[in-house]
Structures are given as C-alpha cells and as structure tokens.
C-alpha cells in the first residue's frame, strides 16, 4: 500500500497537517479580493460574475457531499489528494484565463471556480474527520484548530495580496495555485485515516493502521464505548420502531435526515451561510 512509501504519521502530525490543509481550503473566500478585477479583465457583466460565485458555491456542496462519503468509506487520502488536484488546477486555470483577458471563455471561468469549490470542502471535511478520530476524548479542542485555520485563511491571504503582491491579481492567482498544491500535499503525506471499507487483515479497527504508536487510541476509546453502551436502553428500541421514539444518537442516516431537529438546524445553518457568502462575494475591494 501507499502507506509504506509515505512518512510516518501519528495523531499530532495529523493535527498539525490539517492546519495547512484548512488554510488552503479557506482560500475560496478570498474571492472577494480579486473577483472584481477578474471580472473587469475578462469582460464579464454582473450576471456572468454572479455565475462564478454560484459555481463555486455549488462546487462546495458537491465536494462536501462526495468528500464526506468517500472519507467515511475509503479514508481521508482520496479526498485530500482530490483537493490537491482540483484546487491547484482551478487556481492555475484562473491564472491562465486572467492572462487571456477579454478572450477568456466565460464557461471556463465557471468550471475553474467549480473545481476550486469542490477541492475546498472535500479536504477540509476529511481533515475534520481525521482529527475527530485521532482525538476521541478531545474532539472539540482538536476540531477547533482545524476550523480556526480555515476561518483565518481569507484574512491571511488578503494580507498577502495587499502587502506582498500589491494588488497584482495575476501573480496572486499563481501564488494561490502553488501554495495550495504545497499545503494540500502536506495533507496527503500526513492526514491518513482509513475508512470503513478498508480491507486490511492486520488492522483491528478501521482507522488504526499506522503501527504501534496508535495503540493508545484503543485505551482512549474503550471507556467512551463502555460508557455509551451502558447508557443505552436496548429493549426500548424494540418497543418503539418510530424514528421519533429513538434517541438522536441511535438514529441511522435515513432517519436522521428527516428528523425535525436536523431539518431545523440545516435550514438555520443554510440561511446563515448563505447570508455570509452573499456578503463576502459582494465586497468590492
């Protein structure tokens, strides 16, 4: 397998590697910095410029859904490597199209932003899954490192754009491409957690495949599993098969998606994220 040719990793290396991965993923929201200049250089009207935003948003949805499923089933390496390709290619494509100016086809700009959107979410959610698995007793603390890196990404890149590149969009897009390739490649090397369908006879669990240094995870998880098992009233499941009669922790995916609590939170988060993206993409810097 590829693991034999990759550097040794452990949970601390995984946590550290999610920082550059999240920084690269968060570059999607720096679009407001160069979006106006890109539209002007390529001769896009307001409708076509809005389509770039829409394609990036659709890409994040597709990347999140597919990346999450692939991460659960086959591990984190496929989504992270996909992000390396999609984000790096997307920004390099934008850089090339920006150089073409008025001759740049609008559909290619839309596809390039779509690729950036896909890559931005697939590796990010894979990183969240990885730190959650590696730190079962400190999920919140571990996730906060990755999420904070994602959140601050646009601020850091905006500073680089204004201070280092002095508003040069072409050079900045090339920098986005190269830096994303490097940072996502770090994730490919170290963010390695297996999925449920990994077929390895020498593995005791789906994620513990990296050697003796991961044995401590068994001791961390065992108390959590025992405590969870002791608190579950199994007979109650047979007494009530309706989704509303089950505790939220015991619902399968199908019942979770139609549960009122999930729908409520989904709608609230969708509205909040939509308002946030609308504001970010409408900035004229």
Automatic annotation (TrEMBL):
The chain crosses the membrane at residues 12-34, 54-71, 78-94, 106-128, 140-160, 172-191, 257-280. It holds the Pfam family Nodulin-like. Its main location: membrane. Gene3D superfamilies: MFS general substrate transporter like domains (1.20.1250.20). The keyword Transmembrane helix applies. It is a multi-pass membrane protein. One of its GO terms (cellular component) is fungal-type vacuole membrane. Keywords: Membrane, Transmembrane, Transmembrane helix. The keyword Ligase does not apply. PANTHER family: RIBOSOMAL RNA-PROCESSING PROTEIN 12-LIKE CONSERVED DOMAIN-CONTAINING PROTEIN, UNCHARACTERIZED NODULIN-LIKE PROTEIN. This is CIC11C00000001009. It comes from Sungouiella intermedia. The lineage of its organism: Eukaryota, Fungi, Dikarya, Ascomycota, Saccharomycotina.
